[in-house]
Amino acid sequence: MKKQYAIIKTLTFNEIKRDDVILLSHCLIKSIDLLAADGFRGTVVIEDSIIEDMQIHSCWFTEGLVLRNCVVHGYVQYEMGGHNYRPFVMEGNVFTGFVDFSFCQFLDRVIIRDNVFMRGTNLLGNREDKSAVTFETEPEVEGNAGRMDLDVDFEGEGA
Fold it and tell me: Which residues contact 117 (CB under 8 A, 6 or more apart)?
């Protein structure tokens, strides 16, 4: 799937799972609602786009995810994900709401660079909780603005 300069109402796993490579560039995406029991067969790239709502549950980006230069509005939930065998990259994004990573396990490189987390994230938080994110290799974290080590309860509220 390759879409450039598109308006996408709702993007779900069933609509894109058969594609080997997913590239969304310069899009206005009303909703990303990915609920899956398995992973993508190719790299997923979303760049230079505006995303109004983003919820990802049990979705494995085995061939990597690149989220670059996007504005993501509202609360983002990424739960029980990761399981990547290629890099997971978040670079140059602005997140206006809290970004909630829960029960995620990253197996390959994770690069979090030059993002703005206006309401923070628990990506590096919840260290003493069973919902904490785990990394096989130390994540590459640099140049980000906003708290990345928040502890949250299961409703996504800061502790």
Answer: 95, 99, 144, 145, 146, 147, 148
Residue 14 region by backbone torsions, left for phi larger than 0, else alpha for psi between -120 and 50, else beta: alpha
- How far apart CA 95 and CA 117 sit, in angstroms, is 5
**What gap in Å lies between CA 15 and CA 9, rounded to an integer?**
12
Q: What is the pTM of this model?
A: 0.89
Question: CA–CA separation, 13 vs 83, rounded Å?
Answer: 16
Q: What is the rounded CA–CA span in Å between residue 102 and residue 67? A: 18
Helices (DSSP H) in 11-140: which residue ranges?
Answer: 13-16
pLDDT classification of 159: cutoffs 50, 70, 90:
very low
- Cα separation of 116 and 37, whole Å? 30
Amino acid, res. 59: C
User: Using the 8-state DSSP alphabet, how is residue 5 labeled?
Assistant: S
Cβ partners under 8 Å of residue 118, min gap 6: 94, 95, 96, 97, 146
